[in-house]
Amino acid sequence: MIPWVAKYKPQKLSDIPQQGVSELQGFVETFSKQKKKALIIYGPTGSCKTVAVHLLARHLNKELIEVNASDFRNEEQIELKVGNALKQQSLFSTGKIVLVDEVDGIAGRQDYGGVSALAKLIENAKFPVIMTANDPWDKKFSSLRSKSVLVEFQAIQPSAISSVLQNICEKESVNTEPLAIAGIAHRSGGDLRAAINDTQALAHLKKISKEDLSSLGERNKEESMFNALIKILKNSDAKIAVEAFEHVDEDFDHCMLWLEENIPKEYSGRDLSQAFEHMSRADVFKGRIQRWQHWRFLVYIKELITAGVASAKSERSKAFVKYSPPQRLLKIWRAKMKYAKRNSIAEKIAQKTHCSSAKSLSSFLPYLQPKTETGQQIIKELELDEEEIEWLNKS
User: pTM for the whole thing?
Assistant: First the structure.
């Protein structure tokens, strides 16, 4: 039996329900004018990242060279597989796209040098380099992010998944109940591939009913942070609140930042004071864990930032509140972006002089004069890009 995910694989770009497809296509079509030579498509599993690149290559009649990042990890292997693909001309002179799939599988530079090697190859790429990732915000990908355009493929909406599933069932002559198809779509958590697999698993009797859904295993999909905040800030039941962060893919530090940002939007007066009292106590326990490594205190942090904050309110606010990400993280990100070029230059100096980045920042970079003859020679030796040279000239 042919798997339905293969049998009903999208055949053209318009079949993919993603807004990011147009950005992807625009990048490849205007590659010669792009300052950055790579693009990272990021999003959850089953959001059609890889298939979009395949269809784009077919649509633009370009040769596609695909490598899976999990198959290589160190600098030598990356140079062999990706470097050769970037240096060789297209077989049929139609142009080329190099796809590095599942880039999350590459080890960080502190491990084998994989990420830094790939970033170096991208700088002089003659063809578009497209990478797919689930989480491009990991610290180890900082060098790749700075050299790439980022395009998000969001989890596919249940309504779009339902439409695809209904169309497949009609072609396979499978009788379905509308609620059953909607249930499969919602359970998939935005993973179209998983939804199609589930539908095929239930279609062996040529009929799918709502009752059949119970035979599917529960998917442990991550809850959104916004739903978790609702369980705490809009609710006073400690039993519900204490489980709010169970399926959220964030550590307690980030959860505390989210709460810190949004508590004042829901609480006021004495309620606000009590909520931050619980947050303060949680921070004390966090400090004890850092100093003494007593991880048993983690349970107290969890109780304080969930049940503690939820129980601090005298009554639940009925007003609609739009929660927002923590601004502190945004300020940190802006600060990092402000000094990203400086740090990038310092890292290149450190590699050439065999010292630490901190040492190059304090002892070498301040004395680099880009407009002098010696400075020009150093810039050439460091292989600085245009943006880094511009930063030097302004500093």
Answer: 0.55
